[in-house]
Amino acid sequence: MRVVILFGTEMGTAESAADSIAAELSGAHDVSVHDMTDFDIEDLDVRDFHVIVCSTYGDGDLPTGAEPFADALDRHAPELTGLRFAVFGLGDTVYGDTFNRGGEIIAEKLIARGATQVGEHARHDASTEVRVKHMAQQWAATLDIPALVSA
Ligand SMILES: Cc1cc2nc3c(=O)[nH]c(=O)nc-3n(C[C@H](O)[C@H](O)[C@H](O)COP(=O)(O)O)c2cc1C
User: Which segments constitute the Flavodoxin-like domain (predicted)?
Assistant: First the structure.
């Protein structure tokens, strides 16, 4: 199964989480990791499993690195029925109500195009002692991708 990991980051934390997820999944799957900034939405393929790794900035906004991807989804409104994706979001509870909105915003945009979110929506909290790479690796280990794809 091809697994396409897309990260959206401001300062690089989401990229290191994406790398941990890739390391965990690469034993069993054909995994690639892409910065959302460089990813052409025409390359979204409903046969692939997608993992979205996205932080939160501003006031519950997307990080700069996710904006081109989000804008392209809005502008081109691709038909994504059948596309399956899971989300590992990053944020900080110190920001209150906007906690982890970045990953949620991308999920909402993909769902609006017909895609289906599967698995547990992970939300890392930078205010805790939980190390993001560790949490990302543990989360990835719980993803039963063949089961999530066929459910
Ligand atoms: C200026 C600034 C604004 C932020 N705004 C939010 C926010 O609104 N909600 C939230 O949950 N986290 C917010 N965060 C926390 C980041 O999402 C968190 O530190 C994350 O791990 C950063 O990941 P990145 O390095 O991949 O961008 C903010 C961080 C900074 C520095």
Answer: 3-144
CA of 27 to the centre of ligand 1 (A): 31
pLDDT (tens, 9 = 90+) of the chain, 151 residues, equals 899 999 999 999 999 999 999 999 999 999 999 999 999 999 999 999 999 999 999 999 999 999 999 999 999 999 999 999 999 999 999 999 999 999 999 999 999 999 999 999 999 999 999 999 999 999 999 999 988 988 7
User: Whole-angstrom Cα distance, residue 90 to residue 22?
Assistant: 17
53 backbone φψ class: left, alpha, beta (φ>0; ψ -120 to 50): beta
Query: What is the whole-number distance in angstroms between the Cα of residue 34 and the centre of ligand 1?
Result: 20
To test the pocket of ligand 1, the residue of 11, 62, 92 to mutate (highest count of ligand atoms within 8 Å of its CB) is 92
